[in-house]
Amino acid sequence: MSDSPTIFFCAAEASGDAHAAELITALKRRLPGARIIGAGGQRMADAGCEVAIEMVSQATMLHGPFLKIGYYRRCLRQMKQIMDETSPAVVVPVDSPALNWHVARAAKQRGIGVMYYIAPQVWAWATHRVGKLARLTDHVACILPFEQDYLRARGVNATFVGHPLFDHAAPRPASLPDLAEASQTGRWRVALLPGSRAGEIADHASAMAAVADAIAQRWPEAVCTFAAPDETAAQRIADAVGDSSVKIVAGQTPKVLADSHMAVVTSGTATLLTAHYGVPMVVVYKLAWLTYQLVGRWILRTQFLSLVNILADREIVPELMPWFGSVGKLVDAVLAQMTDLEKLTTARRDVLAVSASLEGGAKPACEATADLVIDLIQRRGG
Predict the structure, then answer these.
(1) Which domain holds residue 230?
(2) Name one GO biological process term (predicted).
(3) CA nearest 331: which of 346, 343, 318?
(4) Cβ pair 74, 31 in contact under 8 A
(5) Which residue positions in the chain have pLDDT lower than 70?
(6) Considering the domain boundaries, does residue 173 fall inside one?
(7) At what angle do helices 97-109 and 65-86 cross, to 10 degrees?
(8) pLDDT at residue number 293
(9) pTM
(10) pLDDT by residue (tens digit) across 29-86?
(11) Which pLDDT does position 264 carry in this prediction?
(12) C-beta separation of 192 from 226 below 8 A
């Protein structure tokens, strides 16, 4: 294998930019002469990628599906041109399947190897696309443990590399918050995680503030805290909840979770971080009723929709998904969980078991994926 191969990356969103950056850093350590070029964001650039197409900050400024279609078509044309000019040894699409299906196809049409990092969740919403994934990739790096067997059984060359979230998550405290004491005294500490995107915060923050009000009425000494990933999200939460007195903390989500007895969490990766800290939770995600009736109910293919329940293959925490915005329904679900100590204790045990299934790999996810990228380059004579 050449010690200076060209590797092309594509990441369309902030989370993909972060995961790609870690993988690029791992590859740069192993292949210091490699040229890494592609489409992405500042995190990738900082890691040593020539970001020929800045997608992440631009994508966050776009509103409406039609504007996005035109933008991504232009980006795809540019990416094809770069592939033609640089002849990369391998293309690494990261997450974002709506765009990266097309990136993978463009690579295959040019005879370039494709190493897909963070498998598209075809098991959840598009089982008919598993064959497409097999055709358009040489290898898929999975971050959920069941994906490897699921995809391999359907003809996809797949490997579980671990979940990158747990490569950096701070260890949980040796002694977790005492659920029995909180139940007896009413001194609950409750984390509220309304998401990171503007739309998620708009959909969930005010309902979570109403949950906090209901908890305060029931247990006056309870403390509820909004955990925002950054200052921008904190301001969006403040705008969404108006004059609510609920505390908002930015950039300290692990600390808030480590100190909490209970959490209300918008569905997504945050549920896995919450599980890591052994926090019982209610998972919620708002969806428009008409959207669900016309689209969602027909394409979803899993019994459960929150990651913690999917990984457990049973309901270990209550999930309101789809949730159409009923504040009363959310309040009732949270209070029902908090008033049943046995359920809380069982939920803590079960979420810790789910977290353990994702942690403790021999290598960090980025290093395990770097192994796969290098192996693919070697096999293809790059």
Answers:
(1) 179-358
(2) lipid A biosynthetic process
(3) 318
(4) no
(5) 1-2, 58-67, 124, 126, 288-302, 360-361, 382
(6) no
(7) 30
(8) 56
(9) 0.88
(10) 999 999 999 999 999 999 999 999 998 876 654 445 556 788 889 999 999 999 999 9
(11) 98
(12) yes
| Domain match, 107 and 231 both | no
Specify the pLDDT at position 305: 83
Looking at the chain, the whole-number percentage of residues with pLDDT higher than 90 is 77
Q: Say if residues 57 and 28 touch (Cβ distance below 8 Å).
A: no
* Co-location of 86 and 191 in the same domain: no
DSSP for 211-232 reads: HHHHHHHH-TT-EEEEEESSHH
Count of the separate structural domains present in the chain = 2
What does the pLDDT read at residue 322? 83
Co-location of 120 and 203 in the same domain? no
**Amino acid type, 133:** L
156 and 198 belong to one structural domain: no
Quick one: 175 exposed, middle or buried, by C-beta within 10 A (0-12, 13-18, 19+)?
A: exposed
Q: Determine which helix (DSSP H) or strand (DSSP E) holds 343, and give its type and residue range.
A: helix 341-358
**Residue the block writes with tokens 């002469």:** 33
Map residue 82 onto helix, strand or coil.
Answer: helix
Half-sphere exposure of 229 (CA within 13 A, CB side): 14
Q: Are residues 34 and 132 in the same domain?
A: yes
**Do 226 and 153 share a structural domain?**
no
